[in-house]
Amino acid sequence: MLALKITDIRDFTNKLFIGEVFDKFCLSEATVTTFNTFTIDGRLQKDFFDTDSMNRLTEHGRTHSLWKDIRPFCWSVIRGKRTPLSFRIVLHLSRSGVEAAMRNTDFGISSEHIDGLFLNLQFKNNSLLCTTGTSLKTFSMDKRPEQLWDDMILSFLSKNQILFERL
């Protein structure tokens, strides 16, 4: 697990809520507290979609909304003159992203054994923390998938010029 403190909160939140930097991530859940607390469960509700739409989503292994589809709702709650009291957003790498990440490794763990690669974002008390998490479907002492995900996030943040301090 990687724990980071984001040092330029304004730049990060602009990239998160206005820009497209995080758009390819899936949303697990989001909670934003302003004058009320707003909670979003990122799981797709199969009954809402027609058969063709749901088939297109499931053939790509999608079970959750993409951040790009939920971002405008979160932004509408946050924007204004006052800073939110807090927010907590849990993003995860798409199934195809997990498969691509594991494709060129020799870990002995296939992408099918990885339940999720998570990015947890928490803003509270004017501080923004970013932590990574890895969930495996089976127990393993091998920490290489976790290290791979941590390295991917460090690379992602650097590539997108997001400033941070390791905790």
Structure, explained:
By secondary structure, the protein is of the alpha+beta class. It has one domain. The chain has 5 helices and 7 strands, in the order E-H-E-E-H-H-E-H-E-E-H-E. Strands 3-2-4-5-6-1-7 form a 7-stranded antiparallel beta sheet. A hairpin with a 2-residue loop joins strand 5 and strand 6. The longest helix is centred in the last third of the chain and has 16 residues, at 144-159. It is globular, with a radius of gyration of 17 Å. Pfam families: DUF5721 (PF18988). InterPro entries: DUF5721.
Strand content: 25-35%
Net shape: globular
Distance between the termini: 11 Å
Largest beta sheet, briefly? 7 strands, antiparallel
Q: Structural class per helix/strand content?
A: alpha+beta
Helix content: 25-40%
**Number of E-type strands:** 7
Q: What is the count of distinct domains?
A: 1
Mean pLDDT: 92
InterPro entries: DUF5721 (IPR043779)
Pfam families: DUF5721 (PF18988)
Write a concise keyword list for the protein shown above.
7-stranded antiparallel sheet, alpha+beta, 167 residues
Helices and strands in order:
Blueprint (H helix, E strand, L loop, with lengths): L2 E4 L2 H9 L8 E8 L3 E5 L9 H9 L7 H12 L7 E7 L2 H9 L10 E11 L2 E10 L7 H16 L4 E3 L1
Quick rundown:
The protein is an alpha+beta fold.
